[in-house]
Task: structure prediction
Amino acid sequence: MELPFAESWKIKMVEPIHKSTRAEREQWLKEAHNNIFMLKAEQVYIDLCTDSGTGAMSDRQWSAMMLGDESYAGANSFFKFKDAVTQITGFNFVIPTHQGRAAENVLFSYLVKPGNIIPGNAHFDTTKGHIESRKAFAIDITIDEAKDTQLEIPFKGNADPKKLEKILEENRGNVPFIVLTVTNNTVGGQPVSMANIKEISALCHKYGVPVVMDSARFAENAYFIKTREKGYENKTIKEIAKEMFSYADCMTMSAKKDGLVNMGGFIATNKQEWFDGCKAFCIPFEGYLTYGGMNGRDMNALAVGLDENTEFDMLQTRIKQVEYLAQRLDEFGIPYQRPAGGHAIFVDADSVLTHVPKEEFPAQTLTCELYLEAGIRACEIGYLLADRDPVTRQNRFNGLDLLRLCIPRRVYTNNHMDVIAVALKNVYDRRETITRGLEITWEAELMRHFTVQLKRLG
Ligand code: F0G
Result:
């Protein structure tokens, strides 16, 4: 008999989590204005808010922390971290930052001018925010197939070369770079194929436009290339990652995801001119060039994390857990963005809560229902997150309305996945009785989903 699959690690340290009663959760959610970001972590049983900075570090990472060099300039921890980045990406110039959005802030301060057009395969919200706040335009060039949640294709995160070429042709001299996000978080943690990376890169370079890779989940993307794309079956994750980066001119990284650390980020490139340009913004925004917002011990842990998370077994353990949850949802017929993504399952709230009108935010309503059911904190990636149109101030209802079940790395077991699946099934089974959603009582102008206050209707 073939041995079943199991995790590629064992557990050395644990942290207690607590269940609560429905009455307690009713009270806490009311106090949090029906916004899960305003809950206290101790009011949550299973936390699927994000996979960002919420992973468990290994014993090797914790021991590397003890050797951190906290020198202001030229710390040996910086060189360890820089060497790890260079080895994995092939980029020689490395600027540390405190997280991914800080890397975007430094790079875009140097590169983005008002009126610029910056195409990308569904820019993450902070990426888009950093473009739009500089009065430039982020244009989505993700393939149309990504919008059909039930369509199963292997590389649903791809960019569309036809959409890109049209933009490059019509905006010559006004596109400072494009952003290729691997994996594509916004459309469901869906990967980008090597063939697509190659084609998009060649197209950009034909027009003299550099490619910036938003690499938050580059290792998960490399895993999907290895397991789904012809010709890569026998390559290692490190070889695949190196090839992915060889088509890019620069990368920004939120190390809180595939770097396996709780805080950190960086920019890396081989373009001397960009490196020099970024230095001028790193120093005032982040800190001196050899720490840029990270402690020495954090850079040590990141060097180890990057190495560990570009090993096949580690990624297989992670992605198989996400697939396991997807299989449980399949058993119950719950619709989600197919196939399962790298870091999360995105449940199609619009087709679950069919009686809740879009004006009453079905995905946010489902997020609240799941919390009330079992103390599980998922998050809305839908109409609230989409914000209002900056000109008309109307809600943007043209995208998908999803509930994201985001799985932290090396934190929960498949027993937790079972609890999540059954809790969602219980909500799903009573979906016909949920006819009213939520109304906004207070909202911020930009990135409202973090602080929005809502009232339950009905
Ligand atoms: N790029 C992508 C693709 C991301 O998913 C994120 C963060 C960032 C950039 C920004 O990085 O948080 O370190 O500043 N995503 C988190 C999430 C917050 O929950 O998906 P950061």
Residues 50, 52, 99-101, 124, 126-127, 181, 185, 214, 216, 254, 256, 265 surround F0G (CB under 6 Å).
